[in-house]
What does this fold into?
Amino acid sequence: SSHFGSRPSLFPWNSSRAPSPPPVFFWWTLASESMANPVVVFETTMGNIEAEIYLDRVPLTASNFIDLAQTGFYNGMHFHRVIPGFMNQFGCPHSKDPNSRQSGTGGPADGQFKNLKTGAMEPRFSGGNIKDECISRDTNAPGSLSMANCGSPNTGGSQFFMNVADNRNLDWFSPGESKHPVFGKITKGYDICEAISKVPTRDDNPRTPIMMKSVTIKL
It folds into this structure.
């Protein structure tokens, strides 16, 4: 069994917290949303956010997220790490207690889930981790959804982050050490996402807890 408390908190790290360049190069329009892909509705205590999930581009990563969402895994968790001009991180089971010091270290149980594109069963291992899926060159642009990890290969599980800046240095195809595959993009409620990133925090944890009331997939 895995002792999540012994695991490091999941990345991404933003050591410099330097201002990001304006995100003008990566914005999109709602018309670009692929209707063939699933849509997720994040119902938070600060409002709703909708996103396209890139099942067509990263089917393993997308199927893992969809499986967790459909089983109710995310419901009742809290955003445990938000940084203005950077990102909002979410998806740790310890964060159901918004004051847990273990938030950021947890993941799902080991097991398996169905790849919705190939039909194959995919494993979760070593504390709920999945295999890295570095196959689609989608950048960590404002509004993108990206996998968190422990800073080493194949350590992503349930945690992910919503970018609120041009974080191209986190791309798996960037020259840096951080490798965070993008698996979706926000199509509605980006203003809610930005507002979440700007709330008062203590050690990056929102002082007033922000709960994910439900995560609903529309296939």
